[in-house]
Design brief:
heterodimer; A: alpha/beta; Rossmann fold; five-stranded parallel beta sheet; 5 helices; 5 strands; 44% helix; B: TIM Barrel; 22 helices; 10 strands
């Protein structure tokens, strides 16, 4: 990807979970690093998120869940993304995701899962490194 | 104080120059702007009028505590926030906690329950039983409280948009146990405004939500007189990033909105104000937390007496539950959280809490296990019985630092409330996005301070170690969703469906009109109409709140 084109990122909150302090802080940190950021707001269905990712033509989609519903919602979102031909978007997960679930989620095509205590620069570097 | 303040001032100046002046000092400042002095002396509290501003516990303005005897009379209620999976598992956890010496219950509901969806609703997929217990009908509530005598317990239920329905279920369980509603002690959260700003489990728009709240005020003032009808919450604002000042200021602004709504609905302030209760977040800055609660007691007493002209002293009293700060827990080196929780618990006690939940050390990773929740209960018990901190009332009172900070915090909170008044009150400030923006700013500032290393978080940005993933975390049975769906299917074939239809149709008529909604909700619940069916009727009549998002 050329450095001239701004990276477009969507931060999304699937499911019924209302904890979005982390999602908002991340969204703002990515914006401050020079990316274009869209935040979906809370309580989004997988269908709404995938439709928004398609409409907004994003390069990366960041999914945040703290409620423990990732085991249902992440696979559902990955399935819909593939159906819509969006399989090549960089997908990242964050929130409270137990270590033992991480491998399974990565096998679905989620590139990386970030947990509590992450430094935002780590994420900025990861996104830049994996989109180039 | 009979001391020569002038002489103390002179001596302090001398000491600062001659003694302290030789040292390089770190600069300390509260995150809400107060610069902390290296030393506090009688000079810093000389303008505090003891009799009028500090006074005596159990008397206006309650700075030193809402009750005269405080913990000399009885300890605070030990009330761990818990609930997960099915009603059966949750009942088992409650029995365990009570056996271990817990003195009150605090029910955590799963997200579908909080948002008024049954477990078989498409949006409930993946969420059933995860962050709390799944409740679809009265049948689940009967199981949760099976063998637990409601006349001897006090129960707090963290339920907001669906509060009226869960309260109705609790009343129905009490009736089945043969307990007179006048004997029931407990609390529903019922605080919708902070759902719009920071917590997210809203259902209905502002108007109908406030109606449900004032209907509960009215119903309980007549029928369930000891029930705390609302638990106005600062906890979640603090979790979302608010400072201690913002936590109290925005919560009081919400409370002022509720009191105004009650008055507008035709209630007299002293009819419902004594049953307002609170939940706050006890965070890391030890002295700030103690001063925060002292300032909050004083300021709320003044607001009730001066602004709302309440005459009943019980309306002036600020009684609060607190939970230690979940957001202060770290996923890194989780055992360090044991220490954080212990000190936060101590701060809550020195701040004069009536009821207390201490987080468990594994909560940055999962729901707590039986062992970890027992350790946090033991933390409270050690503080209550071994440390001597309950041997006198308000032992921190009179500390120059604490008294001075109490006053500064009261002033800062007052300024914020004034600003929200100018915006038209809490509901208007929320609609304008003001409260959300203020909290987000604080959250982002905090994050930047942690990332730059200005703020040390032990084990996260300093003193890190290589760690292996923690073992033995609690995992909610993934079958809970299926179990609940089966229960629902069975319920719908065994209950009197005609009765359900009739009660729901009565509820619809009541919602379309303006009579109190509690009686028809109670009738629907008793007919085993499901939570989703009841909230579904209300959704059709009231519509739904549309969330907005800003970054």
């Amino acid at each position: 990807m050329s450095q001239d084109k701004m990276i477009r990122v969507m931060v999304a909150k699937p499911g019924l979970d209302g904890h979005d302090r982390g999602a908002k802080v991340i969204a703002r940190a990515l914006r401050d690093s020079g990316m274009e950021v869209i935040y979906t707001g809370i309580r989004q269905t997988p269908e709404q998120i995938v439709e928004a990712a398609l409409q907004e033509d994003v390069d990366a989609l960041l999914l945040s869940i703290l409620s423990g519903a990732h085991g249902f919602l992440f696979p559902k979102i990955m399935e819909l993304l593939k159906e819509k031909g969006l399989g090549d978007i960089l997908i990242l997960g964050g929130g409270i995701i137990p270590e033992e679930d991480v491998q399974e989620l990565k096998a679905l095509g989620i590139s990386e899962i970030f947990g509590p205590g992450m430094i935002s620069q780590t994420l900025v570097d990861y996104i830049r490194g994996n989109l180039s | 104080m009979g001391q020569d303040i002038k002489k103390i001032q002179e001596e302090k100046k001398r000491w600062s120059k001659d003694c302290l002046g030789k040292y390089t000092l770190k600069k300390a400042e509260m995150d809400w702007g107060m610069e902390i002095q290296p030393l506090y002396t009688p000079d810093d509290v000389q303008d505090i009028d003891y009799l009028n501003e500090t006074g005596f516990p159990g008397e206006y303005p309650y700075t030193r505590g809402p009750h005269p005897s405080m913990y000399l009379g009885r300890p605070w209620t030990m009330r761990q926030y818990s609930g997960y999976g099915t009603a059966e598992e949750t009942n088992k956890r409650y029995r365990y906690l009570l056996e271990q010496g817990q003195t009150g219950l605090s029910v955590a509901f799963d997200l579908p329950t909080q948002i008024g969806y049954d477990s078989d609703h498409p949006l409930s997929q993946g969420e059933v039983g995860k962050v709390g217990v799944a409740v679809d009908s009265l049948s689940d509530m009967e199981t949760i409280f099976n063998g637990l005598p409601l006349d001897k317990l006090s129960t707090s239920m963290t339920i907001n948009a669906a509060a009226a329905v869960l309260l109705a279920m609790y009343l129905a369980v009490a009736e089945k146990q043969g307990v007179n509603p006048e004997k029931l002690n407990g609390t529903i959260q019922n605080d919708i405004l902070k759902e719009y700003t920071v917590r997210g489990t809203y259902i209905f728009p502002v108007g109908p939500s406030l109606r449900l709240i004032t209907d509960i005020f009215e119903y309980c003032s007549k029928h369930v007189p000891k029930w705390n009808t609302i638990n106005i919450a600062g906890y979640h604002m603090r979790e979302a990033g608010a400072t201690a000042i913002q936590e109290i200021a925005f919560t009081f602004a919400d409370a002022i909105e509720y009191v105004n709504a009650g008055i507008k609905a035709g209630l007299k302030v002293d009819e419902f104000a004594p049953r307002l209760s609170w939940i706050f977040n006890t965070h890391n800055n030890f002295f700030e937390e103690i001063a925060k609660y002292r300032a909050a007691r004083r300021l709320w007493a003044k607001i009730m007496k001066e602004r709302f002209k309440a005459k009943d002293p019980r309306s002036w009293m600020f009684r609060f539950h607190t939970q230690t700060a979940g957001s202060a827990l770290t996923a890194q080196q989780p055992l360090n959280n044991v220490v954080r929780v212990a000190f936060q618990t101590l701060a809550a006690v020195l701040g004069g809490a009536q009821s207390l939940a201490s987080c468990s050390f594994d909560e940055a990773l999962a729901l707590p296990t039986e062992e970890s929740v027992r350790l946090s209960l033991r933390t409270q018990q050690v503080i209550a019985h071994e440390m001597g901190v309950t041997d006198t009332v308000d032992p921190m009172g009179g500390s120059f630092y604490i008294e001075s900070m109490t006053k500064s915090m009261e002033e800062k909170i007052t300024d914020y409330i004034k600003k929200i008044d100018e915006l038209g009150g809490a509901a208007a400030a929320i609609e304008k996005g003001y409260i959300q923006q203020e909290i987000q700013e604080s959250a982002y500032r905090y994050q930047k301070e942690v990332e730059s290393g200005d703020k040390v978080v032990v084990g996260v940005n300093k003193y890190q170690v290589e760690e292996t993933p923690p073992k033995g975390l609690l995992k909610v049975d993934p079958k809970v969703g299926e179990i609940q769906i089966e229960k629902l299917k069975k319920l719908k074939t065994t209950r009197d469906n005609r009765k359900v239809e009739v009660t729901l149709s009565d509820l619809r008529k009541a919602a379309e009109g303006d009579i109190n909604l509690m009686p028809p909700i109670i009738e629907s619940v008793k007919a085993y109409a499901t939570l989703g069916e009841i909230c579904g009727v209300l959704r059709e009549v009231f519509g739904e709140y549309e969330g907005t998002a800003t970054i």
